[in-house]
Amino acid sequence: MMNRFNHLPTLKVDTAQKIAFIYKGKKYYGVKGDTVATALYANGIRIFARSLKYHRPRGLYSLDGECSNTCMEVDGIPNVRCENTLLKDGMVIKEQNVKGSAENDWMSFLDKLDWMMPAGFYYNVMHKPAKIWPIAMKQIRKAAGLGKISPDFEMPGKFDEIFLNTDVCVIGGGPAGMMAALGAAQKGLRVILMESRPWLGGFFEYRSSQYKEGETLHNRAGQLAKEVESFENIRVFTHTAAVGTYNNNLVTGFQIGKKDDVFNERYIEIRAKSVVVAAGCIERPLIFDNNERPGVMQINCALRMAKTYGLLPGKKAVFSIGHDLGLEAALELHDLGLAISCIADIREDGQDPVLLKKIQDKNILFLKGWVATKAHGRKLVKKVSLASVDGQVSKTFDCDLVVASAGMTPVTGHITVAQGTLKYDNHTGFFLPDQMPDKMHAAGRLLGLNDPLSIEASGMLAGLKAAFDCENCSIGEIGEAKKALENLPGPVRGTKLVTAPVKGRKSFICFDEDATIKNIKQAIEKGFDVPELIKRFTATGLGPGQGGIPGHNLPLYVAKYQALPDISIRPTNVRPPLVPTLISTYAGVNHKMFKITPMDEMQRKDGGIFRNIGVWQRARYFSNDLSCKKEIENVRSNVGMLDGSTLGKFRIYGPDALKALQRVFVSDMSRVKQGRIKYSAMCNDDGCVIDDGVVIKQGENDYYFTTSSGRAGQTAEWIRYHTRYDGWNFALVNLTDALGVINISGPNARKVLEKVVDIDISNEAFGYSEYKEFKISDTIPLRAMRLGFVGELSYELHVPSSYMKAVWLMLKEAGKEFNIQNFGVEAQNVLRMEKCHIILGQESEQRTNLLDVGLGFLWDRKKADAKTIGAVALHQAEKDQTRLKLVGFKMENNSRAPRDGALIVDDKVRGYIATARDSFSLNEAVGMALVEAPLSKIGTRLTIFEDECGDDRIYGKVVEMPFYDPEGKRMKM
């Protein structure tokens, strides 16, 4: 294990605390604060993986996940970005995408066959003769992709989610982001600050150069972090990557938990009034031959390896850079013991003279206008060739480390994903924000700024602009902040060099997909002249790094190769997630995300077998007999109780309540009489039936109505949406959870209920389809309806949820002499099916309209002024004789019922079974089916196909509906 520095104030590791992990079956040790990659590096591991296509060796290149070089399998999870994944005790780490090992990959011979795989070769080869393609396709699929996962793999850990509202959301916890958060917080606003690293500080945090006299950038980062943490109205989320920014300032991301957190990762969704993007810059890779060979790394990677993790990144180095940060890093690493053979700067001028003087004082060879052209070494860097930018003069140096960077590139994905636009700036060489999304502001290095004071000033300006969006800041204050920024150094000149003077066969523009400069040339020569098309044809930027490595170089190279003017340079599109995210994180907490009724506990004690039904958990059965014979027979001959609390329940009242009902229900709701129940349905604009229920008039301009369980959460929005422009005056209250429902059904239902209530509920006093409100024992308010959904004498009792258990126990006690029993949803399903009462979503689907399911009698065609939803479509549908129709059928020869969803066929599919069961009441198999209109005639023979029966067919015959008690005498007795 390498020796580490332990005296640097910038360190984020504790060398005294060792952490054990397993790599390729062998135990190694890292230290607290290590990432998986830095721990491996400390143990001498230099080849982490092999590339996707050519199986070239790949090593540590960056530390913020810009490429897939360090993607490995960690604890059974493939494609883990080891460079920014914190090391944990006992981790098991394996290589991926190798045959053999990363050091000795049997597939590495493919690197010599690149001439056989030009850009887009998948589209051009192995298609002729056609019979070759299926064979080739299988082999290509085997070779494609990175990492493998077992189908039986269960994701370990705990995953959470949090949904937040804030005034200002700041993306980026560097100096600009912290200043923006402080600027907004000082105005009394609620601020959320998101930082992808485990700590605040950004590119100040690991640097020892001067901020201002007597103070380093690292110290300044600490001061700002403390100041941020001192504000109670700033909520800081570290180790939190923003993965998407959307309309109306919706920001999504995920946070990686600490050891003491209750989650491993959690999804974060933030609604903000204003957003500040201060995501900084990443490095623009320098393109030269073998530029991805292990031993080549970015400036920040090399510097942070030492300053953050205490590891010297190599023994002898050559720097090939295009930014003053490279000069600063070379000086700091030299002082820490790294031997530097040469610094090659692609710039001819513009370097910081103070840094040049220090380089000269340390006798480090410095070459202006020079660039790396080739890294030598079969697996690891052994030496590097440098040349003048024009390619006329060259030198070679022995080394084990090449620190290479063409310059900086701004992290603008958060802006473009939110539909902001970028424009190429010739001075900085950046794609700078052009049109910002509404109430989104940019700050810091992504604007091309490099001076520390300028970066902070831009953050303060952005924070005040965000405060102005929240109406907490004046124009004058913004003007002062803007003037302060203008008096500081502006954006710095950037480098334009994209590639060294080489042919580009092994000069990689995209590490993830093994795309080279040569491939880009091939694509352009085939006519793909736009970066967005070239990106797809060559797969450049389509890998796990999300385009971080090639995103800036690709459009610059395309413009240079085609000699395009600056105005024509366009970046490729960026799409979320901006950072790869575990599906488990999106899934969130593994809670049972279902609602329960007030009777849940009691029904479980009574033996209820529960199933997930829509958003609810309900008792489907009350025995292990899934045919529910006893439950069904008890309701038909005695009395049973059902918990129907999942029904949607609403009150609508106000001067225009009736108008709203007329709009959404197909019936004439003006005919609803007080004390009576009116059954009706709702349609969508296509006339397709979407819901049904009953409506009761409670008083003048005051109505109570029910909906199906599945629509309870949508009905309110449906009504508001379809009345939003009318200016109507009504109020709508969702009572679904406030009220429970008990359905007591069967010939003895009245005998049980009359023991509990104090009113006359005889057939004459409380008839079928009537509604009454009263109290039990002068205490419990009750809304009672005489309905007949199951085809028997039934009372539907709507009770305040807090009284549900009490009323249930009263009825249970009153029904003891009749041996009253529970019945579940499946028994109810069979009972109502025998009566041919439909359930929308079971006897209907997205295409079926009101007429198809036999509910056309509900539609009042004379209320045109109401503009009833779906009425126009229904008028047209009346003329259509080709639609599916709902029919009843009985099975031939009293054979078994087909399963739900079985197909009605002849020479093609003609319909399907909606619901079918073996009826104990009728002693035969019956059901309902949706069939094409010609098959809906009474007596038509239906041929039924079930896939598990092979070529065998079963047969039914269309009959009149309903099957049970067609005159309805039993439910009206």
Task: List key phrases describing it.
FAD/NAD(P)-binding domain; 21% helix; 973 residues; 7-stranded mixed sheet; Ubiquitin-like (UB roll); 6-stranded mixed sheet; 49 strands; alpha+beta; elongated; 7 domains
List the helices and strands and how they pair.
Layout: E1 14-23, E2 26-32, H1 36-42, E3 49-50, E4 57-58, E5 71-74, E6 77-81, E7 91-94, H2 121-124, H3 132-143, E8 159-171, H4 175-185, E9 191-194, E10 210-212, E11 215-216, H5 217-230, E12 234-237, E13 240-246, E14 250-256, E15 265-277, E16 281-284, E17 296-297, H6 299-307, E18 316-321, H7 324-335, E19 339-345, H8 353-361, E20 366-368, E21 370-376, E22 383-388, E23 394-398, E24 401-404, E25 407-410, H9 413-417, E26 421-424, E27 431-435, E28 440-442, H10 452-469, H11 475-486, E29 508-510, E30 515-516, H12 517-525, H13 531-538, H14 553-561, H15 583-587, H16 600-605, E31 609-613, E32 616-621, H17 629-637, E33 640-643, E34 648-653, H18 657-664, E35 677-683, E36 689-699, E37 702-707, H19 715-722, E38 731-734, E39 739-745, H20 749-753, E40 771-776, E41 780-787, E42 794-800, H21 804-814, E43 821-822, H22 825-834, H23 871-877, E44 884-891, E45 903-905, E46 909-919, E47 924-932, E48 941-945, E49 953-959
Helix pairs in contact: 4-5, 4-10, 6-7, 7-8, 10-11, 17-22
